[in-house]
Amino acid sequence: MPEFAPGEAKTAIAPITVKPAGLSCEAEVFLGPNEATKVATSGRIPFVSTGLSQDVHLPIAMPAAEGTYHVYVDVYAEDYLIAAYQAIEDVVIVAAAVVGWILPTGHIDIRDEWTDPAKAYDGDLSTPAFCLASSYTGGALVLTPDSPINCSKVRVYAASYYDKEWHNPDLSIDYYDGAWHNFWSGLISKYTWIEKAIGGTKLITGVRVKGNKIVNLGLFEFNFWSEG
After folding, report:
1. Domain that holds residue 220
2. Which one-letter DSSP state was computed for residue 191?
């Protein structure tokens, strides 16, 4: 079955024969779960019959929602429905895989230690998720994508605060693909995007971040690298 991206613009070319020549005609292609439900449609496109087979061009934008859709073509002559067809093949709408940096869409605060955890992925480098030294018991903040992704690296923007100053944070970072795997433990530069490879491309469902020391930790932003 042919696959298209959500909202992708396409043009169906329908060979249509209407007799006699000279009739005012219209054709419509539409997609849906059945012929009574038009999820996407070209609308009725006018043409004049030639009495012979003619190619009628029917521009249509694919549905926004992923899924499999039947394809129908209706033909009208002088405003009367004279033919209704269903294509042999259905159409599949599949979202294009993203390659590049993406934000998490959720989190799990394992021990309920983090303040404003969603700020770790709000796209704002000035707003941190905070784990305070006073509440630290070694709990991690798990960052999750909306579905499993092929990931080869992550990047973090973080800093630690103690002795009335901001310092380079000491972090432990693990990914999850059915089990937890540590791929970084140590200091990183403060207030700087730091990339860390996870050791190949893995299909992961989350990454957890925690501080290695009992200090105030600010996780300002976190990104996954999606390989698509």
Report:
1. 99-227
2. T
